[in-house]
């Protein structure tokens, strides 16, 4: 009787472990697939784009773009940026960094994850159709698809997720001293 119980327990553990491995493999393939789609999108906008390389120069260009479109200068606290590209005609921008970056905006106590490739279409006061940015909310990671400042006088920036949920925060939480 005892032996049967142990065998059943081992079978249950193995089944759970198999399910976990399948889940991890599925998540990795989703990440790889998303990364590939972002890469393909970047490739389609490279022609006619201004492209810069090197961490310090790319950070400078990203901050310059954020200022030009009226967004806070600290929205992309990325490290080891390899490439920054901007196709002015399409309004398409991308940042490629060596690896994923997790960052907590301390003033609002929110964790944000930046994929190795971040892309967006921009216009005055907003970035839309974003890829590669996720905000942690409770136990979920929600993709940020739009961020915008509707009314500069409000001093609030709104983040919209792929599920159409949105939240607004003070612009000052995303600015850093220069």
Structure, explained:
- It is a single chain.
- This protein is an alpha+beta fold and 178 residues long.
- It has one domain (39-174).
- It has two helices and nine strands, in the order αβαββββββββ.
- It has helices at 2-45, 55-69, and strands at residues 50-53, 81-87, 92-97, 101-105, 110-123, 126-137, 140-148, 156-161, 166-170.
- Strands 1, 2, 3, 4, 5, 6, 7, 8 and 9 form a nine-stranded antiparallel beta sheet that branches.
- 23% of the residues are buried.
- Residues 2-34 have low confidence and may be disordered.
Would you summarize the structure shown here?
Helix content is about 35%, strand content about 40%.
Write the topology of this structure.
Blueprint: H1 2-45, E1 50-53, H2 55-69, E2 81-87, E3 92-97, E4 101-105, E5 110-123, E6 126-137, E7 140-148, E8 156-161, E9 166-170
Antiparallel strand pairs: 1-2, 2-3, 3-5, 4-5, 5-6, 6-7, 7-8, 8-9
């Amino acid at each position: 009787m005892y032996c049967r119980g142990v065998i059943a327990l081992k079978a249950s553990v193995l089944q759970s472990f198999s399910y976990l491995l399948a889940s991890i493999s599925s998540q990795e393939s989703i990440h790889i697939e998303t990364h590939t789609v972002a890469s393909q999108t970047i490739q389609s906008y490279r022609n006619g784009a201004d492209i810069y390389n090197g961490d310090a120069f790319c950070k400078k260009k990203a901050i310059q773009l954020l200022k030009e479109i009226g967004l806070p200068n600290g929205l992309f606290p990325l490290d080891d940026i390899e490439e920054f590209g901007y196709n002015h005609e399409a309004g398409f921008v991308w940042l490629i960094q060596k690896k994923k970056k997790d960052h907590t905006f301390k003033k609002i106590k929110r964790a944000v994850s930046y994929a190795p490739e971040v892309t967006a279409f921009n216009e005055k006061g907003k970035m839309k159709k974003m890829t590669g940015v996720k905000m942690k909310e409770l136990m979920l990671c929600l993709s940020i698809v739009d961020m915008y400042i509707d009314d500069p006088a409000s001093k609030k920036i709104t983040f919209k997720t792929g599920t159409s949920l949105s939240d607004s925060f003070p612009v000052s939480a995303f600015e850093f001293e220069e």
